[in-house]
Write a structure and sequence with these properties.
Elements lengths: L2 H11 L5 H27 L2 E6 L2 E6 L1 H20 L11 H5 L2
Antiparallel strand pairs: 1-2
Helix pairs in contact: 1-2, 2-3
């Protein structure tokens, strides 16, 4: 699901006359875009990255992993705040929302 489809879905489910919902949808869309970019960076550079510091070279976890976790938690919190009252069968799967 791309950003426009996701936005359209959320706007169809929420009261968009409420400015709080407008802000939540905007923030949610931005977070999903950041999530996707972080996934691309992790896919490109891997889970472990080589770091060179002066004469030292060492491996460490990709810093994007930590950021991905933070963004994921923010996305989950916003999803809960939407309180969508739709039957489970009609809701898009989280993987569909994030893998647009």
């Amino acid at each position: 699901m791309d950003g426009n489809e996701l936005r359209n879905y959320l706007e169809s489910q929420l009261d968009m006359d409420n400015q709080v919902n407008v802000e939540k949808v905007d923030r949610y869309i931005q977070l999903v875009e950041v999530f996707r970019e972080l996934r691309k960076a992790i896919d490109e550079h891997g889970y472990i990255v080589k770091t060179e510091n002066a004469s030292q070279t060492f491996l460490k976890p990709n810093p994007a992993l930590s950021e991905l976790n933070k963004v994921s938690n923010s996305i989950n919190a916003l999803e809960k705040s939407f309180k969508l009252d739709q039957p489970e069968n009609d809701k898009p799967k989280k993987r569909d929302l994030l893998n647009g």
